[in-house]
Structure formats: structure tokens, C-alpha cells
Amino acid sequence: MNNLVVLPLLLPLCTAVLLLFFKERIQLQRIISAAGQSATAIACVLLLVQTGSSGIQLLAMGGWAAPYGIVFTADFFAALLVTAATITAGFCLAFSFGTVGSEREKFYFYPFFQFLMAGVNGSFLTGDLFNLFVCFEVLLISSYALLVLGGTKGQLRATLSYMLINILSSTLFVAAVAYLYGVTGTLNMAHLSVRIAEAGQGGILNVIAVLFLIVFSLKAGLFLFFWLPSAYQAPPPAVSALFAALLTKVGIYALVRTFTLLFPGDPGVTHVWIAWMAGATMILGAVGALASKDVMRILNFNIVISVGFVAFGLAVANEASLQGVVFYLLHDMAAKALLFLLGGMMIREAGADQLSAMGGLISRAPWLGWMFLVAALAAAGIPPLSGFGGKLLLLQGGLQAQSYVLTAISLFSSLIVLYTLVRLFIKAFWGEQPAGPATAVVAEADRVSNAAAKTDARTDADAQTKPDVAANAVAFATAAKASHGSATQPRNTSRGHLVVAGVLCLIVVLMGVGSEWMAQAAAEAARTLVDPSVYIEAVLKE
């Protein structure tokens, strides 16, 4: 028994409760939230070190051993994901300072952020199927609040559809859990694996397995992703980055754990379904990315492609592909968070979210442009960046399993990712700056700034006219915004936010340069996926 196992869940939970008492004190909320996130990251790293050196770590809640009580189980796979999720969320939290707005910060943004982290970490660490449902609900309720904070029309519309879909999937989840308990008499994951193997997977158990596939596919955005583009586009960039990095990964984790531990016995049914859904997801995601002209929508469809890519590795389910699943999940958390943070800064710089209204950003924000290019190449799997190692292992697994069609679709989708993101980079940073309201404000701001530097050479009368000219330009931009609807006043990205993105970009590069270490970690994490008996023995021997 190791109490360290529950700390990644307990620390954000306690931090969230503490933050509730300081609703109006924004600066104190930031400090407490950052301290809590840092403490959680330290606990996750310590847990990762222990699982790496001493094997699977367990904690039976209330002293009730498995299979009778709720057991939190940290194998190396879960510990890696918890650590990566907590560190990535820390960057999203740092970026949120000064970008989400004081109104959101006063309406419990930081407590909901921490509650969401408690749900995410609990989902990765629980060894009980019903407790997985509880952790899912904690993170979903928190995500509803984070999505709707701000109360804009787009947020309300996206929240409504997002809630309805997740209420449906949660209802199906409870039904599937009830059916499985009725058949097997247990909900402990390790014990379920034993009972299902004894009964022989087939008949009603295959029906239940498909029901779980539908539930977790809805949550992960696997084929049933119609809710995702609008939901992840509505909130501020820090929240979108958090959702893109973590929420679909929890659904993917549930799929991986379910179909490697509970239902691996009849791949001719379950894994064939996963394969078809993976292929369709990659194709439809590629079509959506090609058709989109909105920055965040392009990035959202790239999430969909990534979900299909990981599901391809699960469908193949050999050693190489499962190692690739682990490697790619770690990469995708960091890379997707980075892309969304940079996308938010691009929109802030341009004053518009449509590609047609962007251009010339490289002259105003060169560091932003080059970081976006690095993130784009990493997402596409270009060596030596972080996406290459995971994609290589996934493709290797596909070829070993003679799954040539899915492998070809995966290669094609990678080319689409590269094309759409590089196209976005070229148009936004190197394209001609279009005339419009955003351009008017930028031009006027530059003109007034240059004129201010020459104030000494001008008369007092001239100096007094400057505010009027600037006001007229802003008024023109506001009127144009009312008629066009998409432009906002451009604002320079703060140096602090660039530093946050820069450090995360460095991590993405280092994950690629250190791919040998990453591959070793992925191989160790995949050991319990390839051979579930290791996980089962560690849990049930207690």
C-alpha cells in the first residue's frame, strides 16, 4: 500500500476547495492554484519514479483489499499519463493568467480547473470501473463550467450540445457497468479480466464490450466526434488547450485499458470495430481540416485525426503498436496544448480568427511564428521532433499486423496534418496582410507610436490631435467589426505568455531529441498492456 498513489487526485481536490474561499481575490487564487499544481506535479513525478523502480503501486481505500474495495492502481502507463497531464495542465494554467479575464477568474475558474484535474488524474489511476465513471463525471461537470464561463452566445450553444452528448454517454456508461456487474459480479478491473476470461468473451459480453466502445468513443471523439469542433472552439485559448491536451486522452485511456485488460479475448469483433472507426475518424478529420478556414477549427479537426491515429494502434494491438500508443499519447498532450496556446496568441495578434483576415504576422511576432512551425512539424511527425517516434512505432505495428489499409490511411492523414498546419503558418505569418478593421487598428497604433517618438519635433497643437485620430481609427474598426462580425482589436502578446509557450515548445523538441529514452519509457508502460497478467497479479495478490 502506498498513499502516494492518491495524491495526484487529493492535492487538486484540496486546492479546489481552498480556492472557493477566495472568490474575489484573483491574485491570491493564482498563487494558490499555481502552488497546488506544482505540488501535484511533484507528487506525480515521485509516483512515476516509484513505479519505475518498484513496480505497480496500489492503495486500497478504507483498507478493503481488491476485489471488494475500491483500489487505486498506478502502473507505469498510468503514472506516465498522470505526470504528463499534470505538467501540461500547468502550462495551460500559467497561460490563463491574464488571458481568461477577471470576470471568469472571479466566477470560480481556478477551482473548476483543479476539480477537472482531480477527475483526470483519478480516471488514470483508478482500478475500479464504477470509480472510473465517478471520475469521468467530476471532470465533465468541471469542463461544463469552464466551457460556459463567459456566457457568450457561442459558448452557451456549444455547452448545451456538449452537455447533452455527455449526459447520453454517461447514461450508457452506467447501463454498461450495471450489465457487466450483473454478468460477472465484480467491478474491479483486474478481477473483471479474470472473470471475463473464465466465462469466455462472447455473446452478451461482446454486446457489453461494444456498449463500452460506444461510450468511450463518444468521450474520446473516436468516429462520434461531431460535438468536438464547436465545443473546443468556444472557450478561451487556455481552456481550449487544456481540453485538447487532456479530455480526449482520458477517453482514449479508457478505451486502451478496457480493450487490453477487460475485453482482449475476441479481437475479431471488438478490435475490428475499433479499426473501422479509427480509419473513418482519420479520413473525416482530414476532410474537416482541409475544408476549415478558421484557425481553431483547423486545430480541432487535427485533434480528431490524432484520436483516429491512436485508435489505429489499439486496433492492431501488438507490442510495437501499443508502445506507439503510449509514446504518441505523451507527445500529443504537449503538442496539442502548444498548438492551441499558439493559435490563441495568433488570433490575439491578428484580431481575427479567419485565415482570410490574417497575414503578415511574422513581422510583428516572429517568435510566435517559428514556435508554431515547430509545433506543426511535431504534430505531423517530422523527425527529430516528438511526434516522429510514436508514429514510427504505430506504423511499424500496423505493417507487422499486415494492416496495410489502415497504415496507408495513417500515412495519408499525417500528410494532411502537415499540409493544413503549414498552410495555416504560411497564410497567417507570411501572407499579405489584408485590408480591414484589424489592419486599420494596427496601422493606426503603429502610426501613433511612431509619431509619439517624434513629439519633441512637433508643436503642442499637433500633439493634442493624436488622441482624436486614434479614437477615430478605433471607432472605424468597431463599426467594421459590427458589419463583419469576426474581427476584434489586435493586441500584442505578452512576453510572459510567449515564455510559457516557449518552454512548452522546448519540451516538445526535447521529447523528440530524447526519443530513445521516450521509447524505453513507452516500452515499459506498454508491458502491462501487452501482458495484462502483470497488472492482474499485482492487484489481486493483495
From TrEMBL:
<keyword id="KW-0812">Transmembrane</keyword>
<feature type="transmembrane region" description="Helical">
    <location>
        <begin position="34"/>
        <end position="56"/>
    </location>
</feature>
<keyword id="KW-0472">Membrane</keyword>
<dbReference type="InterPro" id="IPR050586">
    <property type="entry name" value="CPA3_Na-H_Antiporter_D"/>
</dbReference>
<feature type="transmembrane region" description="Helical">
    <location>
        <begin position="405"/>
        <end position="426"/>
    </location>
</feature>
<feature type="transmembrane region" description="Helical">
    <location>
        <begin position="76"/>
        <end position="95"/>
    </location>
</feature>
<protein>
    <submittedName>
        <fullName>Na+/H+ antiporter subunit D</fullName>
        <ecNumber>1.6.5.3</ecNumber>
    </submittedName>
</protein>
<feature type="transmembrane region" description="Helical">
    <location>
        <begin position="130"/>
        <end position="150"/>
    </location>
</feature>
<feature type="transmembrane region" description="Helical">
    <location>
        <begin position="328"/>
        <end position="347"/>
    </location>
</feature>
<feature type="transmembrane region" description="Helical">
    <location>
        <begin position="6"/>
        <end position="22"/>
    </location>
</feature>
<dbReference type="InterPro" id="IPR003918">
    <property type="entry name" value="NADH_UbQ_OxRdtase"/>
</dbReference>
<feature type="transmembrane region" description="Helical">
    <location>
        <begin position="107"/>
        <end position="124"/>
    </location>
</feature>
<feature type="transmembrane region" description="Helical">
    <location>
        <begin position="272"/>
        <end position="291"/>
    </location>
</feature>
<dbReference type="InterPro" id="IPR001750">
    <property type="entry name" value="ND/Mrp_TM"/>
</dbReference>
<dbReference type="GO" id="GO:0042773">
    <property type="term" value="P:ATP synthesis coupled electron transport"/>
</dbReference>
<feature type="transmembrane region" description="Helical">
    <location>
        <begin position="298"/>
        <end position="316"/>
    </location>
</feature>
<dbReference type="Pfam" id="PF00361">
    <property type="entry name" value="Proton_antipo_M"/>
</dbReference>
<keyword id="KW-0560">Oxidoreductase</keyword>
<keyword id="KW-1133">Transmembrane helix</keyword>
<dbReference type="GO" id="GO:0016491">
    <property type="term" value="F:oxidoreductase activity"/>
</dbReference>
<dbReference type="GO" id="GO:0008137">
    <property type="term" value="F:NADH dehydrogenase (ubiquinone) activity"/>
</dbReference>
<keyword id="KW-1003">Cell membrane</keyword>
<feature type="transmembrane region" description="Helical">
    <location>
        <begin position="162"/>
        <end position="183"/>
    </location>
</feature>
<dbReference type="GO" id="GO:0015297">
    <property type="term" value="F:antiporter activity"/>
</dbReference>
<dbReference type="GO" id="GO:0005886">
    <property type="term" value="C:plasma membrane"/>
</dbReference>
<feature type="transmembrane region" description="Helical">
    <location>
        <begin position="498"/>
        <end position="519"/>
    </location>
</feature>
<keyword id="KW-0050">Antiport</keyword>
<feature type="transmembrane region" description="Helical">
    <location>
        <begin position="367"/>
        <end position="385"/>
    </location>
</feature>
<keyword id="KW-0813">Transport</keyword>
<feature type="transmembrane region" description="Helical">
    <location>
        <begin position="239"/>
        <end position="260"/>
    </location>
</feature>
<feature type="domain" description="NADH:quinone oxidoreductase/Mrp antiporter transmembrane">
    <location>
        <begin position="127"/>
        <end position="416"/>
    </location>
</feature>
<comment type="similarity">
    <text>Belongs to the CPA3 antiporters (TC 2.A.63) subunit D family.</text>
</comment>
<feature type="transmembrane region" description="Helical">
    <location>
        <begin position="203"/>
        <end position="227"/>
    </location>
</feature>
